[in-house]
UniProtKB/TrEMBL annotation:
GO CC, any one term: extracellular region
The organism of origin for this protein: Pseudofrankia inefficax (strain DSM 45817 / CECT 9037 / DDB 130130 / EuI1c)
Protein name, as recorded: Polysaccharide deacetylase
PANTHER family: POLY-BETA-1,6-N-ACETYL-D-GLUCOSAMINE N-DEACETYLASE (PTHR34216:SF3), PTHR34216
GO biological process: carbohydrate metabolic process
Pfam families: Polysacc_deac_1 (PF01522)
Domain of life: Bacteria
Alphabetic keyword roster: Signal
Alphabetized GO MF terms: hydrolase activity, acting on carbon-nitrogen (but not peptide) bonds
Length: 257
């Protein structure tokens, strides 16, 4: 799971941005070790010990450069886009001092799809779906899927929960909207028999060394801290709801939760 491949991130976001040269080396390390790097739907269609799904969240404009590197390395990927923010600035990134980051426009997204990258939904408004009234949550999910299908003319099979937050109600809304899979954060390897609507991911950061990539995809990143956070997720969700914290920053959420 990546967010940005580029340079010049704020100090708060730097860890989540991977330098283009390093990104190429990270991909190369797995390709050289015999792994097949594909999009999320392709990986679920043909699961294999040596298949790794590459995913990107948010659709920042620097993904155009990442696409070139992916294609050059013979790799696929899935990009998850929050449709309300297409061609706009990533306001939810204010916590990272990156609210001016631009999300790709529709023609750039078409270019990416034509290069063989799967484009999935990251919801419409990039909202905390688990805290929304159910009818608005369902509408957000459906709208994002319809917009992607209409504008890109391709099947939209995969979803990614904004900030990684989901509940049973959210998962069933995503399934009812016609998606075949959905990603959380998870910090782990997705078991073959695992829930396709709670696909776990590993976070690759700007300090993930190419030499560590193979260990990452075989061992995951289940540190005791991460396990503790997962156990405390439900109380935290209740706390958020009680305090109407509707606009948490990415800094607290997606990469760290
Ligand atoms: Zn996101």
């Amino acid at each position: 799971m990546y967010h940005s491949v580029g340079q010049g991130a704020s100090s708060a976001f730097r860890r989540w941005q991977v330098d283009p040269g390093l990104f190429a080396e990270q991909l190369g390390a797995l390709v050289d070790a015999g792994y097949r790097l594909v999009g999320l739907s392709a990986a679920l269609d043909e699961p294999d010990e040596r298949t790794v799904a590459v995913t990107f969240d948010d659709g920042f404009v620097d993904f155009l450069g990442a696409t070139e590197l992916l294609v050059a390395a013979g790799c696929g990927a899935t990009l998850y886009v929050p449709t309300a923010h297409v061609a706009r600035r990533a306001r939810w990134m204010a916590g990272y001092r990156e609210a001016e980051l631009r999300i790709m426009d529709w023609s750039e997204l078409s270019e990416v799809a034509a290069a063989g990258i799967e484009v999935g939904s990251h919801g419409h408004a990039h909202a905390e779906l688990d805290l929304m009234p159910a009818h608005l949550m369902r509408a957000d999910i459906l709208l994002s899927r319809r917009m992607l299908a209409d504008r890109l003319g391709r099947p939209v099979r995969s979803f990614c929960y904004p900030f990684g937050y989901h509940t049973r109600t959210v998962r069933s809304a995503v399934a009812s909207a016609g998606f075949a899979s959905a990603c959380e954060v998870g910090y782990g390897l997705h078991p073959r028999a695992g829930d396709a609507f709670a696909v776990r991911r590993l976070i690759v950061t700007g300090d993930t060394r190419p030499a560590d990539m193979r260990r990452l995809v075989t061992e995951g990143q289940d540190s005791p801290v991460m396990q503790l956070r997962r156990r405390t997720r439900t109380p935290w969700r209740i706390y958020r709801a009680a305090h109407h914290i509707a606009t948490r920053s990415h800094a607290e959420a997606e990469p760290g939760d």
